[in-house]
Amino acid sequence: MNLNRIVLKWGGSILLLFLIVLIPTGFILHTIYSGLYYNDKEEEINDLSSRYANAMKSVQDRDILQMFVTLSGFTNNEVYIVDKDGMIVADSGIAGIVAGEKIKANELATLKKGEAVDKEYHFLPSTERFLVSGKPIFNEDSFEGGMFVMSSLDAIDQSLTQVKLLVILSGIVAFMIASGFIFVLSRKLSAPLLEMEKATRKISRGHLQTRVNISSDDEIGHLAAAINDLAVELERYRSNRQEFFATISHELRTPITYLEGYANVLKNELYETEEEKKKYLSIISDETKRLVRLINDLFELAKAEEEQLTLEKELVDVRKIIDGVIVKVSLKAEEKGLNIEKNLTKHTQLVQGDQQRMEQIFINLLENAIQYTESGKIKVDLHEISSNQVKVTISDTGMGIPDEEIPFIFERFHRVEKSRSRDFGGTGLGLSIVKKLVEMQNGTIHVKSTLGKGTTFEVIFPTADKTSLS
Ligand code: ADP
Description:
This protein is α+β, with helices and mostly antiparallel strands.
């Protein structure tokens, strides 16, 4: 039998516990039962011996002695009577008690003092034990002898043996039932654990389709469900990663192909005019810039996704950050003839965030707004929307995003009409980085857009908890 360790551990401990309870219980039962019975007997013979001894005045009359012997027979007890010298003068015929013999000197001395003799009597080789109560017989003040009443402990011994047997037997039966029960229970418990162990090992070897087939609504079932969830998550992660690498290599290959192509044109002097040469050089320069940006963005995103981007959080004034960002991007906006209109509430509460990352978020959003807007204006709003939230709105009058694209806009490499973003030199990574950065600073980001009319990005940050300000 393949006893695995959990069965041994569980079964062993429960059985041990069981024995720890059973053995003292049997012992206590035995002690209580025998104690009760013993006390009863003791009281009975004490009472009888006292009454008999009080009823006797002398031990001379044989008939009276015989009468007491007969009387004790009615109560299922035995008696023997001794005279003042301690010699047995009458008895009901118990083995070892012989008329004419003397009782022990110390017993006689006790009786003479007017005290009772209590003892147990056992005459070998008989197995029968007796409880003995001896009382002195006095006539006025003179000591006449002693009356001993004996009661056999045979019945109690027998029933105690029976009780003991019963306790042991029920113990053995209970022990066997419990062992069987524990064994079945432990097997039932360990079987799913073994199955889960096998499944997790398979998953760790890369078989991510492996699932655990346990659906019980208890801790084991929940653990199995958690393992299955983990496998699903790993599968999704693996397929995401594959897709991610496929996209990266595609994204990297495109500018490199351009670079290679135009570099060859220049190397082999396959151009006709100086102007043409300049055009090719400027394409090479643009594509190099795009490649650098792509690599930087990828690095940034990878760090963010692996949660390795460390933020240096402090209390920041979002208004000041936006002011600075607008100054930075205004040249680009002017080049396109776009006006940036700002409407910033003067004193908004501070936000717990990373100054530089915060800047990065708004630069990205503003650069996008400038990039995808040909005419009109860009508006930046900042105000508190509740006592503990600030909202930044960046809206433009640009080309907008089609409704069906909006759910995917924050996914990496997602570009609306692939050619559109390429024309603008985008990488398709900006918004996914922005979203990560916003979330890492406990904020949320939403987009509303109408194709051909414009786009609005809303970023909401919780303001710093006043109690945390130090
Ligand atoms: P990219 O580097 O290509 O701009 P982003 O992740 O920043 O990548 O943006 C993803 C796509 O979302 C872009 O390709 C663009 O089509 C669209 N987009 C982003 N911002 C705007 C905007 N303000 N107006 C219109 N389209 C936008």
